[in-house]
Amino acid sequence: MAFAKPQREASFEAALESGQYDALILIHSPGAALAEPLASVLAEHARIDARVASDSLLIPAAKLPGQRLISTATGPLLRDYDDVRRFYDAGKKAAALALAAGITKPLLQVAGVPDDERYAQAELLSLLGFWQGLWQPLEAREALGEAEVEPVSLVGVLSASLDVDAAAAIEAGRRAGRDLCGTEPERMAPLKFAEYCEKLFAGSPVKVSVLRDTDTLKRDYPLMMAVARASLAVERHVPCVIRLEYQGEGEIEKTLLFAGKGVTYDTGGADLKVGGHMAGMSRDKGGAAAVAGFMKTLAELKPQGIKAIAEIGAVRNSIGADSFVADEIITSHGGVRVRIGNTDAEGRLVLADLLSHLREAAVDAVEPEIFSIATLTGHAARALGPYTAVVENGPARELNIGRTLATLGDLYGDPADVSRVRREDYAFIAPRTRADDVLSCNNAGSSVTARGHQFPMAFLDIASGLAKHGLDSAQPIPYTHLDIAGSGIEGGDWQHGAPSAAPVITLAASYLL
């Protein structure tokens, strides 16, 4: 889990004298006011290369660390649609060039940050983007060695104010999230996902327990175990529920509860994915990965007054003679009779049982807020592109949870859009006969279904029993669903793209920083 350690430097002179660094990386906006010798170096190079104002370049510079400068321009910043991700993207570009140039101990400087609220976190996002660009898959690190594929061992940050410890805590969580999401389905089969979590939190304030007993799982997580049914014949594919618990020091003021969809491979089950749509489905555990990642950041920051409980359903949706099928009626942990509409809508079944357990914990908790995080629907990606979809129940909407996540997501470069769950969504999954209480889904792809990322929230609300804790109840419980099908992987390439670990930054900004 090692990554390039951050170190804050108060002055350029002190950093230069230390002799620790082998290059200066400058991330700058157009027209940034620079001190010497940077101003002269860039002005001289700009005479022969206009890309100084728009690209990432390696420039010889005798008076700088390692006698070399990586200059990376952010591009425009002040248009209506610009945001702090300009700095994040510049950090990623700088990382790619640093790796290609053989730089292993860079000193990072950010210049020309506008006096604009949108860019208050520009230094942090430049560093997080740089780390994102350095990350290499877990399989590569294990096969070739950490030093071979991730040679950068130290990152200095020239800043008067950046909290590098908080930045490192966020990156520790995001790195765990990328590892868990991005690793292939055998290396990160359910019990190996659990093993990674046990190692990740060893010696930390987060307690890990893993429920492996098949009979207990069938009794307490019946919907999840329907999804797992065809996988039980293969020992290495058997499911588990991973529970992570943290209790901060002092009086508890807030309880956060998370359900994470950890489908380690999704074949679609009996409704088999065809036409090449199965590639990349090892990343269908991105929600569970983000939950574990957030808990890692929490473990590093150790906030007081917060209690956090997370349940991760690690399961493989396999195809086989014992696959569950459409038309089955299965009673959830919450006592709700669920008619299966399509076995490729398996993630909401896993989440419903997890949420039901969290609902029971929330009843006696202090100021509870429940979240589910999942790569749930293609519709979220189709409707919102690379943004997390936030869908709230009534109590969460009353607390402006979605608006808070969206606002801070913009400021911290991990954006989200808020969607409303409406009466049509509940009507869509209403039972057609008295044989069942709720329909899991229709039998068409979510991306071609109207309100394809909103109606699953209505299903989760009912199947988990949370619908009994709405605004009209004696005990309202805020519940917010986060669909990261569009935001979980950079560039939308689910087989090859780098996991983004969304929404770890947004959650950290909202509850920990």
What would you say this structure looks like, in words?
The structure is a single chain. The chain is an alpha/beta fold. The protein has 18 helices and 17 strands. The strands form 3 sheets. An 8-stranded mixed sheet has the order 7-8-10-9-13-17-14-15, with helices on both faces. A hairpin with a 7-residue loop joins strand 3 (56-60) and strand 4 (68-73). The radius of gyration is 24 Å and the shape is elongated. 54% of the residues are buried.
Shape: elongated
- Give the averaged pLDDT, no decimals: 97
Helix content: 25-40%
Q: Rg from C-alpha positions?
A: 24 Å
Count of strand segments: 17
Residue stretches low in confidence (pLDDT < 50, at least 5 long) are none
Major beta sheet summary: 8 strands, mixed
Structural class: alpha/beta
Compute the separation of the termini in Å. Answer: 22 Å
Estimate what percentage of residues fall within beta strands.
15-25%
Strand order of the largest sheet: 7-8-10-9-13-17-14-15
Helical stretch count? 18
